[in-house]
Amino acid sequence: MQYFDNNNNLKSELRKINYVYENYKFIFYSDLGVFSKDKIDEGSKLLAENYFKYGKKNNKVLDVGCGIGFLGITIAKIMDAKVDMIDINNRAIHLSKMNIKENNIVANVFNSNIYENIKDKYDCIITNPPIRAGKKVYLTIINEAFNYLNDDGELWFVMRTNHGVKTVIKNLQMKYNLDVVDKSLGFYIVKVKNKV
Asked: Is 5 strand, coil or helix?
């Protein structure tokens, strides 16, 4: 069982995770069968906290592969963003809906296999792509993002150094403006924009 699969027979062992950023406090429910089930993973944390510092407020944001909803929910609250969240995993969708309620957020969450059910355009697409789902999946998330971004929209993503991020960056730089916003704990935080 991988976190990007659906297994309706998987038992449930609900647990609570706390997250604090400055004066903001969040509670997230997590469970078996979702990514990083026991804690907010370092990559997602770094991505979110860089976005809080350098991202734009009041954006329309799409969180791709939302898992329990950490990125979308914290960005909705801290950045006053209008957020849509998608995942292919039904349990992740269910947990995200619980966490939206728990944290008193307004956000949309729905099932989508990558961009299959996306009809809108966004100011920002943010993702901690599911590396274990394979190269085809995570490269599709990254490379097709610009079909769903406004002209001045931004793609933000996190990848580990040892997951081939340098090659991904090199390929993106041929077509787009790219900034490495942060490099720490073995992760790259990357922001990509259309060339003006």
From this structure: coil
Domain that holds residue 141: 15-194
The helix (run of H) or strand (run of E) holding residue 102 is helix 90-102
* 174 burial level (CB within 10 Å; 0-12, 13-18, 19+): exposed
* CATH number of domain containing 79: 3.40.50.150
How is 29-46 classified by DSSP, letter by letter? EE-TTSTTTTS--HHHHH
Q: Is residue 69 part of a domain?
A: yes
- Model confidence, pTM: 0.92
C-beta of residue 31 within 8 angstroms of C-beta of residue 12: yes
The strand ranges marked E within 53-184 are 60-64, 82-87, 107-111, 122-127, 149-160, 176-184
**Number of domains the chain contains:** 1
Token code pair at residue 27: 């509670």
Whole-number percent of the chain with pLDDT over 70 = 92
